[in-house]
Amino acid sequence: MAEKHALNILVLAGGISHERDISLRSGRRVVDGLNSLGHTVTLRDPDASLLGAIAENRPDVIWPALHGASGEDGALRALLEQTGIPFVGSRSDAARLAWSKPTAKTLVARAGVATPASVTLPQETFRELGANSVLATVVAGLGESLVVKPAQGGSAQGVSIVQSADDLPRAMVDAYTYSDVALIERKIEGVEVSIAVIDTGDGPEALPAVEIEPLAGAYTFDARYNAGETRFYVPARLDESVSARVAAAATTAHLALGLRHLSRIDLIVDDSGTPWFLEANVLPGLTETSIMPQAIAASGRDLGEVYAALAVAAIADQ
Which bin fits 293, alpha (ψ -120 to 50), beta or left (φ > 0)? Predict the structure, then answer.
C-alpha cells in the first residue's frame, strides 16, 4: 500500500538496449499505475543529462523500468547507489550476478534448486578449439535436444531450441549476435512457468505461477510481447504440492541471488513435478502481455498499489 502522502517518483524507461521498445511500454504502465494513486511521476529516457538532472531535482525515489543491459547488468544501479536516492529493485551487485545466466545457475544450484546441465562457451574458445570439434563434444555430453541462449540478455532474444545437431551451428551464431558468451543447456521437457516474486518489506513472496503455452511452440520475443501468440494460465495448472515446490524454488532463487523488491524466476516443471531453474530477471517486463502484471492481478492486488508499495519499500531500505 502506498504512503499516505504523494511521492515524487522518477520512472526510467527506454535506454539503448535491444529491449528499448519493451522498456518504454513497461515504463508507461508503471507511470499509469502510480498516477492512479496520486503520486507525482516523471517518465524519463536515460541520456547524458540524466545524472545531472537527478542531482538537481532529487526525487523521493527512482523506479527503473529499463530492460536489457542498460537496466539489468548493474552499471546504472551502481551509479544510482552513488546518488544516495532510493531506487526500486535489486542493488548493483545482485543485478550483476543475475544478469550472467551461467553465474545465476551456479548460485541457485548451490542453494539446492535443480538447473539443467549446461556448457558455457565464450566465442573465443569456440573459435580457438574449432567449431566442429567443440559442438561434437557438446552433443556427446548433453545430447541433441538443447537450448542455446546468450549468456546475458533477456526477452528470449538470440534463444534457439535445438532438436538436431545439424541445427546447433546456426543457434550458436544467433546467440553470439547478442553476447560474446553462449550458454548451451540440455532441454528439459515439461511445463514452462514463470513466477513473480515481490517483497514490500515482509520478505519475498512468490505470486501465483503463470503457465506459458506459446501457440507456435516456443516462447520467442514475438510470443512474449504480441497479444494472441501465447496462452497463459494464471494460476498455472499444477497440483497443489507441485505449486508449493515451484513457489519454494522461486523464493530460494530470489534469495540465493540477493535480489530485492521484485524479480521473475523462470522454471520448467518436469513430469515428476521437479522445478528446474532457467534464469532470473531483476526487472521483469511490465507490459500489458507480461508475466508480472498477470501474477499481481491473480493475487488480488491492484497494479498501482503494488508499484507504489515497492517504491515505499525502496525508501525504507535506503
Answer: alpha
246: helix, strand or coil: helix
C-alpha atoms less than 13 angstroms from C-alpha of 225 in its C-beta half-sphere: 18
Helices (H), 68-115: 69-72, 75-83, 92-99, 101-110
What homologous superfamily is domain 96-113+188-301 in, according to CATH? ATP-grasp fold, B domain (3.30.470.20)
Q: Which CATH homologous superfamily contains domain 118-186?
A: ATP-grasp fold, A domain (3.30.1490.20)
Measured between alpha carbons, how far is residue 252 from residues 86, 102, 202, 247, 275 in Å? 25, 17, 15, 9, 12
pLDDT of 206-244, one tens digit each?
999 999 987 766 655 555 555 567 889 999 999 999 999
pTM reported for the whole predicted model: 0.92
Whole-angstrom distance, CA of residue 123 vs CA of residue 128: 9
Return the domain boundaries, the chain.
8-89, 96-113+188-301, 118-186
